[in-house]
Amino acid sequence: MKDKFFKYLHELQDTITSKLEMIDGSSVFKEDIWKRNEGGGGRTRIIENGAIFEKGGVNISGVHGKLPTSMESYFNVKNVDFFACGLSLVLHPKNPMAPTVHANWRYFEMYNKKGDVIDQWFGGGQDLTPYYLFEEDAVHFHQVCKAACDKHNPDFYLTYKNRCDTYFYNSHRKEARGIGGLFFDYCKSSQEISMSQWYDFVKEVGDSFLEAYVPILEKRVQLPFTKEQQNWQEIRRGRYVEFNLVHDKGTLFGLKTNGRIESILMSLPPKVQWVYDHQPGPKSEEEKLIRVLKTPKKWV
Amino acid sequence: MKDKFFKYLHELQDTITSKLEMIDGSSVFKEDIWKRNEGGGGRTRIIENGAIFEKGGVNISGVHGKLPTSMESYFNVKNVDFFACGLSLVLHPKNPMAPTVHANWRYFEMYNKKGDVIDQWFGGGQDLTPYYLFEEDAVHFHQVCKAACDKHNPDFYLTYKNRCDTYFYNSHRKEARGIGGLFFDYCKSSQEISMSQWYDFVKEVGDSFLEAYVPILEKRVQLPFTKEQQNWQEIRRGRYVEFNLVHDKGTLFGLKTNGRIESILMSLPPKVQWVYDHQPGPKSEEEKLIRVLKTPKKWV
Question: Which of A208, B26, B183, B267 is 20 to 30 A off residue B87, Cα-Cα?
Fold first, then answer.
């Protein structure tokens, strides 16, 4: 399973980065191959200062070895080996009318000292963070998410949509990071569903990413924008930073376990502002966004 | 003690904000008085878009009531009341030649149900975060810190200088946040030193703040700077954000216990950049700073 899925992630990274380079037309991804001392490594691909993308990363990694001590207590195990691979992407378009997008698909295995697999699961998801709310974009993104889920289980979409709303939540601001999407974790084999069926589901979501995001991006980057709208984008990007550094388990885990810092923090936006007690004007487009982030909506 | 110290903090806030307004000459502090539902409140003073200060806050607060559950396990107590007051300041000058400064002085008391004080302590410190290293500035700042300490105990300076280097450390970057200063906590009465003597010491440090920082600021804001140097400042400010959101106990505690978010996050810089894998040129002024942050120096 791990070889099959990691191979899929390599192909998916290629598919996504070539499509995004075509869309950008000006900048290309810079590739960094890195190795992890304790086992494994990754292929980081970063785009910066493009015509469309101000900053973005589409990274894969596959790491293995002895499970770090800090993770032992988290998973409540002792002296086990592990393998983990994943693709993580974050795209920050320059145009504030175009949303930031995040996606991640990952697979985890643990082994006893004999090398038997003692646990294995998939996780992942994709979610959208607009700076200006176009309801039809939110509906499109969620429709693609739902279509991918519905092919596998009629309950998946609602379950994972709700988990996404719960997870990507800036509790200290009492608002969601964005308008959500899907978030799933610990997808393990059971009487109802085998690992191979989970693989098919995660691949379905991975394959749906470009269809979910690209039409929105291509439409919104056509729109003109003002310096004030760009300021608003940079202020909202501050909330993105707050979520990633204060609440996101993946980021914190990476930072505290000696992960490759630059690959982890590629998610942080290129230009960010913090303005004291910034409040959007009443009935403004900016306030409309905040209202939706305060109370996550059903989009489909 | 609590009334005496809180009164001192009010006066110190006035002294500091009037001096800083005089220096800025263009912008003034905006004051927000806020109340905490569970007891107490604060007086937040923020300056933005000044001639000298791009952003800064000099805040006091005094809060009391039942100790929040999240703090009970931290202090290993149950069902106690508390009082806490403090002054926190962070100043982000516009000119990248001038350093950011942070200071905090605080006092904490806990009571049993009869209202007896069962524990009490002071904490605080002040530290400097330059974007370009002027060794004479670091020496001046530490000299003032040392002089304040030496009036009270010959060991204080070295002890609290080292704690500052240890505390304000971005472990995920393996570098200090800045060039340090003082950091002390849990300053409790003992056979050697009474609470009243701790008060005198903390007041000495508080009173030394303007002398430690203002001469540096006034000298450096005279210097010209380029767009590239400003970019470097904004990239380094990203490390400041990383420390405050990932490692700073005070910030995280505030965010997770329903503190006044805007007063807590006033510490975040106004404009920030994250550039993938940014490396200063060899033997550049930027690299010189990094070298010192990797290995904290003895300045006096």
Answer: B26
Whether A231 and chain B come into contact, CB under 8 Å, resolves to no
Provide the chain A residues 46-105 that lie in CB contact (below 8 A) with chain B. 46, 48, 55, 57
ipTM for this model = 0.94
Size of interface A-B (CB pairs under 8 A): 77
Q: With contacts defined as CB-CB under 8 Å, which chain A residues touch B57? A: 276
- The neighbour count for residue B33, using CB atoms within 10 Å, is 8
- CA quadruple B217, B218, B222, B223: dihedral sign: negative
**A275 part of contact set with chain B, CB < 8 Å:** yes
Q: Would you state the structure tokens that stand for residue A14, as one six-digit string?
A: 């290629």
Taking the C-alpha atoms of residue A193 and residue A175, their distance in angstroms, rounded to an integer, is 34
Query: From the CB of residue A218, how many other CB atoms can be counted at a distance below 10 Å?
Result: 12
What are the pLDDT digits (tens) for B219-234?
A: 999 999 999 999 999 9
Residue B258 pLDDT > 80, yes or no? no
Is B271 within 8 Å of A272 when comparing Cβ atoms?
A: yes
Please report how many Cα atoms fall inside a 13 Å half-sphere around the Cα of residue A163, on the Cβ side. Answer: 15
What's the angle, vertex CA A154, arms to CA A151 and CA A155, rounded to 5? 130
Q: What is the DSSP string of chain B?
A: -HHHHHHHHHHHHHHHHHHHHHHH-S--PEEEEEE-TTSEEEEEEEEES-SSEEEEEEEEEEEEEEPPHHHHHHHT--S-EEEEEEEEEEEEESSTTSPEEEEEEEEEEEE-TT--EEEEEEEEEEEEE-SS--HHHHHHHHHHHHHHHHTT-TTHHHHHHHHHHHHSEETTTTEESSSEEEEEEEE---SS--HHHHHHHHHHHHHHHHHHHHHHHHHHTTS---HHHHHHHHHHHHHHHHIIIII-HHHHHHHHTT--HHHHGGGS-SEEE--TT--PPTT-HHHHHHHHHHSPPP--
Instruction: Give me the sign of the Cα torsion angle A77, A78, A83, A87.
Output: positive
Pairing of strands A175-176, A100-111: unpaired
The alpha-carbon gap from B234 to the nearest alpha carbon of chain A, in Å, equals 9
Hey, is the C-beta of B255 within 8 angstroms of any chain A C-beta? Answer: yes
DSSP 8-state secondary structure symbol assigned to residue A265:
G
Residue among A286, A132, A144 at smallest CA distance from A223: A132
Which amino acid does the sequence have at B298? K
What is the model's pLDDT at position A73?
82
Does A204 contact chain B (CB < 8 Å)? no
For A247, which DSSP code? Answer: I
Active site residue A172: no
Choosing from B64, B92, B102, B172, which is the catalytic residue? B102
Domains and CATH numbers, chain B: 2-294 (3.40.1500.10)
Cα–Cα distances in angstroms (integers) from residue B252 to residues A50, B21, B68, B249, B255, in the given order: 35, 30, 14, 5, 5
**Mean pLDDT value across chain A:** 95
| Paired tokens of A69 | 């001590």
At A122 the pLDDT is: 97
- CB contact under 8 Å between B274 and A252, yes or no, is no
Pick A265's closest partner by Cβ from B57, B262, B274. B274
Which residues of chain A lie closer than 8 angstroms to B45, CB-CB?
A: none
